[in-house]
Amino acid sequence: MGRHLSEGPLPLCCLISVLVVLALGGCATNECTAPTCLTEIDLESMWPNADGTFWLYTLTTRIWESAGMIEYATPQEVPEAPSLDEIAIRLYRNEVPNRFEIEEGTYRLEFDGFITTLSGVTAQNLVETIDMNGREFRESEAQTDPFLSRLLDARPDIAANSGKMIGLECSSGTLHAPVCKALSRAIVSQQKVELRPLLIHGYAWEKTDAWIGTYGDLDTLLAWKFLDAVVRLPHEFSFQLVPALASDVWLHCRLLQWRTIETGVGKFSPALECIYLVDYGVARIEHKDGPPTWARIYDYGKVIYVPTVGPVFCYQRMGVNAGVDDDGFGDLTLNLIESNTIK
Q: pTM (2 decimals)?
C-alpha cells in the first residue's frame, strides 16, 4: 500500500513556487516575461497539422512494483480523485520509487492523409510509431483507439462487460459490429498500455475553432480533447470520456503556466504547460469467493506545447490509487529530438 499524504511536508520554497503559479496563473520562469505570457495565442498555432508534419521523441518508460488496486468494501468508501491543485504539487515533487525497470526507445507522430474510425468518422490520420529496442509497431495500421486499452486495464468491470458483449451480443449480432471490433482490438492491445503515450497520441485527429482532439471507435462523438478554444491563463476544462461504456470516466485539464522548456532540440520560450488528470471512476471488482469490492485509480501528467512547433514534452504517471500517496505502477516521458515544425 502507498504512503499516506501526511508523510511529510513539501519543502517551503517548492510549495510557495507551486502555489504562486496556481494562484496567479502566470509565468514561473525569468525567461518568460509578463507581456509574452499575457498575449493570447490562438488554438491554431498550438499544434501544426499540415500533412507530412512530424515529431520524433525519445520515449522512456519506468515500471516499478506497485500496490495494485486498493480495494474498499463499499462504493461509498472509495476516495474521490484528487484535485488539479494536488496534481500540480505531485508533478512538482515527482517522487518515484528507488528501484524500477527502465526501457528506452523512440516515439514518432506524423500526419499522413486521412483515416476512418470503425465508427465511421473520417479525420486526419496522425500515425504513431513506437520503436523499443528495435521492436516497431505503427498502431494506426491496426486501427485501435489509444484510450480503450488503457481503460480496460484500469476498469476490470468494463473489461469484463466488454468480454461478455464480445462473447454474447457480438456473436448474436445484437451489438453494432464496429463496437465489437473496437473492443476486441482493445483487449488484444492491452499488453501495450505501458508503452503507449496517452496524453498525446495519434489516430483520427481533428483541429477546429473549438478543440484539438481525436475520435475513437465506439461512437461518432469526440473521444479525447487535448486543448479547447481558450489558450490563455487561467483556464481549465473537463471532458467526459467513453460515455457509451461508463458515466464516471473523466479527463480534466488545466493550463498551468507559461514557461521555458529545454528539450533535445533546444530551448523554447514561451511554452504552455498543461496538466491532465484521467479519472477512471469507481471500478467494481468481482471475486470468486466473497462479495465484490470497489477501487479508484487515475493517471496524471503534463504536456508542454510550443506555439508553431506543437507538443515538445510529455510526462505521464500511470495507475495511481486515489486517496493515498501512491506511486502507481510506472511513468512515461517523451522528449522532442526532431521535428519539421522547427524553423
A: 0.86
